[in-house]
Amino acid sequence: MLELPDALPPGALCNATPAAAGRALRDAFWWHGSADVMEVDPKTNAATLWRTQGSGPPAEPTEPNKGNGQIGEADDLIGLQCKAQTHCGMVADAVTPDATTATVAIRFYTPPGEDARTLFTLNAGDNYVFLSENDGTLIAKDDNGLVSINLPCPPRDAPRMAIVSLFGDQLALSVGPNRADGKASNGILSGQADLFIGCRNQRPRLLKTLGSALILDVLFFPNRALLHEDAAELKALKRHHLWAAA
């Protein structure tokens, strides 16, 4: 028997389920890869609706996603399976009335030798911020060219978690123990925004931006810049990833 003298974080003994971690992440809209919240077409296994664990809006297939986004599994991991150069994305409309300050966290798994490409996009209409993984590098940037930052993506064959925070003219990216920060000449996003999962927007021809990630968790924190705060939620996110990926 293994005995530890320290108190373990919530979820350590039950695989870090949303119920265990949810108390610490109560400010988030959480799309968790689970049969409990992901509705599928029984004939095609296509994801038709992805509900949040809390009160956030559900994610629905984008217009170009004609049943392409499937429920995928890798060992005990479950999530939205994306396919290279195939539009498999989903969108949660109006996740925030003002995207000036926001945080998106995403847990994903990509098979060795594949690229995740676009993981998520926070789209405010006149500009958007996206996170992409290409050739082992995570890139967070906006479409108008105001700011761009990047970090190496951990190479091990395991799920990764990336966190992106917007805070006015500041953009921050975190993965593992590493962090990158950038500053734009003015505010990056403002106004109402939609959250796209696995794609940039509703346009059908951006095929080179679409990769092969299995998207396990997406968390959106409206009006919170976790990487710019001393936030208990940031610690809870990292603990969830640690124990869920164990």
Explain what you see.
- The protein is mainly beta and 246 residues long.
- The chain is 7% helix and 40% strand.
- Strands 1, 5, 6, 8, 13, 14, 15 and 17 form an 8-stranded antiparallel β-sheet that branches. A 7-stranded antiparallel β-sheet has the order 4-7-16-9-10-11-12, with no helix packed on it.
- β11 and β12 form a beta hairpin.
- The two termini are 19 Å apart.
Keywords summarizing the entry:
246 residues, mainly beta, eight-stranded antiparallel beta sheet, seven-stranded antiparallel beta sheet, 7% helix, 40% strand
Secondary-structure blueprint of this entry?
Blueprint: H1 18-21, E1 29-32, E2 38-40, E3 47-50, E4 60-61, E5 70-74, E6 77-81, E7 90-96, E8 101-109, E9 117-123, E10 128-134, E11 137-142, E12 148-152, E13 160-167, E14 170-175, E15 178-183, E16 193-197, E17 214-222, H2 232-244
Antiparallel strand pairs: 1-17, 2-3, 4-7, 5-6, 6-17, 7-16, 8-13, 8-17, 9-10, 9-16, 10-11, 11-12, 13-14, 14-15
Provide a brief overview of the structure.
This protein has 246 residues and is mainly β. It has two helices and 17 strands. The strands form three sheets. Strands 1, 5, 6, 8, 13, 14, 15 and 17 form an eight-stranded antiparallel sheet that branches.
The number of distinct helices, counting runs of at least 4 residues, comes to 2
Structural class: mainly beta
Share of helix, binned: under 10%
Spatial extent as radius of gyration: 17 Å
Terminal residue distance: 19 Å
Strand content: 35-45%
Uncertain runs are 10-16
> H/E order of the elements?
HEEEEEEEEEEEEEEEEEH
Query: pLDDT average, as an integer?
Result: 89
Question: Largest sheet at a glance?
Answer: 8 strands, antiparallel
Question: Could you give the count of β-strands?
Answer: 17
Overall shape: globular
